[in-house]
Write a structure and sequence with these properties.
The protein has three domains: 3-174, Lipoxygenase-1 (Sandwich), CATH 2.60.60.30; 209-368, tt1808, chain A; 385-427, no CATH class. It is α+β, with helices and mostly antiparallel strands and 428 residues long. The chain has helices at 167-173, 209-236, 241-255, 303-312, 352-358, 363-367, 369-381, 384-391, 394-408, 414-426; strands at 3-5, 10-12, 17-24, 32-39, 51-52, 64-67, 77-82, 92-99, 116-121, 127-132, 141-150, 153-163, 187-190, 195-198, 263-269, 272-280, 283-290, 316-320, 324-332, 336-345. The chain starts with a strand and ends with a helix. The protein contains ten helices and 20 strands. Helix 2 crosses helix 5 and helix 9 (394-408) crosses helix 10. The strands form four sheets. It has a six-stranded mixed sheet with strand order 1-10-9-3-7-6, with no helix packed on it. One of its GO terms (biological process) is response to tellurium ion. Keywords: Tellurium resistance. Residues 1-174 form the TerD domain. InterPro entries: Stress/Tellurium_Resist, TerD. This is Stress protein.
């Protein structure tokens, strides 16, 4: 059972290890970061190592660790907390989120978001406390909650307090010495006996997901180009399916980054067969169908992989003939369907944009499940039927009626406008 807290409410923590998850709108218009501060009774950090954030994700005592890409499919950031090893002179652990100011354009604020929350999850995955922020204005930083000691017992309090300053201002307020220049250099302090190196936390921005993905795409492009003579020779000679798979094996391991034991060939289950199953950390994530080099690909060719994936609970599949790579999303509601996510052709040249798509099915991409999921959601959102459905909503029809009246002076009702729009869409 989950205790849903209001601002200022608290709950006792009767677990030794907890996961503190924080979340916000998936389509947030700006970069958001989560951070934590281990504070003494004076509400100050004992040292800079008590500041846990993107450039310093583990507290010195390892009682607190930040996971920037949690794999539970819900939270945007998560902190793993081991309360048994929190130093005795730490009185509370403050959890905050902050906005990035370094992107130009409109000044961001948490008032732009529809959802912000913090929740506590036990080791078996059950949420036992949650606080949803009810309202926010122009703040750039929010303290969402705090874990604190009370007569030797750990408790959690929902805070929801905002600050106009960003991450640097919040860190400084808690006594952290920050290097906002971003050079990340060590600062030396001299001592009577020896020289001690003190690392000052740097707030230099970490790479965004898109930047990291494009770096992987560039690496993938270089690796695939080095394999192109082999791919072209196999295609020109129209080598058989067995020899084609030998080339695909090399591509998956040398370019896409999988280890040998993560590329499983000729997998069978309940009469269904997959030429390939790709796994990451022992979890099967994608099935694959291989056709002879240069063979024209057809929708029916993905059937075997699709049926295997649907039966096995795998939602992604690829189909390839070496030069063309097609990726599908598998759904199994009323019936099993495979919907094309993207198609990439490696000839005549391999573009960086195409490699960014292929990077989504590399080991790097599949290990970060949200990357491929987000891309599919964007593709699906702009699918013809979804766009038509959006056009025919009452809000859009009403807006069209208003614009028509403004431009022509003619007054129609929504039903008349909708009838014309439906006729126009039917003719497309």
């Amino acid at each position: 059972m989950t205790d849903v807290l209001v601002r200022g409410a608290n709950v006792q923590i009767d677990r030794e290890q907890v996961l503190v998850g924080v979340g916000w709108d998936a389509d947030a218009p700006c970069e958001i970061d989560a951070s934590a501060f281990l504070l003494s009774a004076s509400d100050r950090v004992r040292c800079d190592a008590d500041f846990v954030f993107y450039n310093q994700p583990v507290a010195e005592s390892e009682c607190l660790m930040l996971n920037a890409e949690p794999n539970n499919g819900e939270d945007r950031r998560a902190f793993a907390v081991d309360l048994t090893v929190v130093p005795d002179d730490v009185a509370k652990i403050v959890i905050s989120i902050t906005l990035d100011l370094g992107r130009g354009g409109e000044r961001p604020s948490f008032g732009m978001l529809n959802q912000v929350y913090i929740r506590l999850v036990d080791p078996v995955g059950d949420c036992f406390a949650r606080y949803d922020l009810q309202e926010s204005n122009d703040e750039l930083a929010l303290i969402l909650g705090e874990l604190y000691r009370y007569h030797g017992i750990w408790k959690f309090r929902a805070v929801g307090h905002g600050y106009n300053g960003g991450l640097e201002a919040l860190a400084v307020a808690f006594g952290v010495n920050v290097d906002s220049s971003g050079d990340g250099e060590d600062h030396a302090e001299e001592n009577d006996q020896d020289e001690v190196q003190v690392q000052t936390p740097t707030l230099k921005r970490r790479k965004t997901r898109q930047q990291a993905l494009m770096e992987r795409a560039a690496e993938l492009q270089k690796a695939l180009r080095s394999l192109m003579p082999l791919i072209q020779a196999a295609t020109e000679s129209q080598c058989n399916e067995s020899n084609t798979r030998m080339v695909i094996d090399r591509m998956l391991m040398e370019a896409f980054g999988y280890s040998m034991d993560e590329v499983k060939a000729e997998q069978r289950i309940q009469g269904r067969k997959a030429d390939y199953v790709l796994s990451v950390d022992s979890e099967d994530l994608m099935v694959g169908e291989a056709k002879r080099a240069g063979m024209s690909l057809r929708d029916k060719h993905i059937f075997q992989a699709t049926s295997y994936g649907a039966y096995s609970g795998i939602r992604w599949a690829f189909l390839t003939n070496l030069t063309t790579w097609q990726v599908y999303h598998i759904s199994a509601h009323d019936k099993v369907e495979a919907n094309l996510v993207f198609s990439v052709d490696l000839q005549p040249d391999i573009s960086l944009d195409d490699c960014a798509r292929l990077a989504l099915i590399s080991r790097y991409g599949l290990a970060r499940k949200r990357l491929l999921e987000q891309h599919w959601n964007e593709v699906n959102a702009l699918a013809r039927e979804n766009v038509i459905r959006a056009i025919l909503t009452e809000d859009v029809i009403n807006r069209l009626r208003i614009v028509i009246k403004r431009d022509s002076g003619c007054n129609f009702d929504n039903e008349q406008v909708q009838q014309v729009v439906e006729e126009l869409l039917a003719g497309l």
